[in-house]
Amino acid sequence: RKVALGTVDMTRSGSAYIICDDLKDDVFVPSRNLRGAMDGDRIKVAIQHRRGARRADGEILEVVERAQEHFLGTLRIWKKYGIVTPDNIRSVLEISVPLKDLKGAEDGDKVVVRVTAWPERHNHNPVGEVTAVLGPEGSNEIAMTAILINNGFELEFPEVVMRESESLPVVIPEAEAFIRKDMRHVTTFTIDPVDAKDFDDALSVRHLDNGMIEVGIHIADVTHYVKPGTPLDQEAFKRSTSVYLVDRVLPMLPEKISNELCSLRPNEDKCTFSALITFDADYKEQDAWFGKTLTHSDRRFTYEEAQEHIDSGEGDFPEELRLLDKIAGTLRKRRFKNGAIAFESPEIRFQLDEQSKPVAVYRKERKNSHLLVEEFMLLANRRVAEFINKKGAEHEIPFVYRVHDSPDPERIEEFARFARRLGVSIDTASPKSIANSINALTLRAREESNLQLLEPLAIRTMAKAEYSTDNIGHYGLAFSNYTHFTSPIRRYSDVLSHRILENNLTGTYRENKAQLEDRCRHISKQERRATDAERESVKYKQVEFMESHIGEEFDGVISGMIDRGIFVALTESLCEGLVPFHSLQDSFEIDSGRLTATGIRTGRILRMGDTVRVKILDAQLERREIDMA
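Given the sequence above, the corresponding structure tokens read:
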């Protein structure tokens, strides 16, 4: 028997397939051999090849790491105990809860339950305790909570973490001014969304005596407060990211740290970790300095305010803003010249009422002020990665790189064939020519609405960016070295980058590469979960918005095809719904690339990207589906 490490992928029947790290084929495990393992758990599996069987089957030996300990479900109270049936169909069947651990929940309530004891045998229930009572079913609160819980995120911080957070000192000791570069006298400001609660980063700019321009990218010094191995640090790593749903944020760090101690609020001294980049008169990069600083933000700008001051040249700090805007524009031009891709997938924004119901849905508009901030964050991330990479040229310094592989040739060829049908040529000769073609497509799509669909399709053909100690570069940004350094309040990857950078400023420090790679893998997995949760919350709110528009007509674009119909994304709100083929009084044949559907009787052709007019027939929140005609 061979033993392998893998991840559980549950089926509806209660059996599972194990996706093994080092094996090409999945391993089937019948329910009786699961040993209480659940969907997403990391496990050790014993594999055996039975004579005459087509595939190997297995038996789980132990659960190495649980994917989920909290579940949302419906409570039923019996004479001696309660039973919670989780909503997630790929989770355990039922969780037993002693009556003393019900936390006041009543029969029929939706509750969050934490499993305290897992069964060893497949026909035994896990035992748990109620951690939150959500009341009767059907509210937005329950839907959003379910999205977080079912993606493996915990709602509350453990008590020990909250105690540690509350004990941190609010006042910065005077001694910090002697061990940090004091930049409180330099004009500094933040530029963030209007509804931002925590301010990760601030910018400063000034002319130096030698004729150079110095741009300061000042980042909240989370590692000053969050020390390695503490309960606070362990919980931050476990979460790895803040999760941004439509109507709430589940933070990576407790509010005292994210919104108070580390947030670069105006008119307050703050501990920061800064990248100071000097430019010559032609805005060419010269030197870079990294180190711990003390800063003082003079102004909090929203993106809209900053844009107004750039456009008008009036108000607070217009000269500084305009200079930063010019430098950012030059950096952006150079980046695209080097082969960066201008990914412009539209972001959806909702206007919510007091009950969190959506009253309007619109595309987020990206102004120059957004691009300005983005460009300086990219600059700091790149320069930090370059510094570590160069320092470890002879003997590698393991680091957390943000990497993005070049596209898979087969997938990009398939995309190029489809694009050609819409009159768009994609040059697949080299990674750089692919990037140039996609940028040309982005420009055309602004004028030709039927091409807008190609942008998200192009993005889907790309590899996913992730964290790794193996520095293969970042294809989409056209950077050989790239990391995440600029958002430690909401990303644990940046906390690790800060620590490794700080330890390498005065000496040479090397983490254990294999252990760091394990951490990168966990952080990447949590990032994917957070992205899934965010998308689910957007989908929920889009369907909820459409509930009040049943019977109305909208313009849209064909955005996908399945055997039973076509998906249409509405032009204004990007809400997506299904038009079933049977409603078109014809049977349709879909080509192998799922790009066109042809009516068997009428010969009518429907193509991806076609503009259509649809009527909203129904919006079903439980199924997260919009029915269209």
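DSSP finds 13 helices and 31 strands in the chain. Try to locate this feature in the token string yourself.
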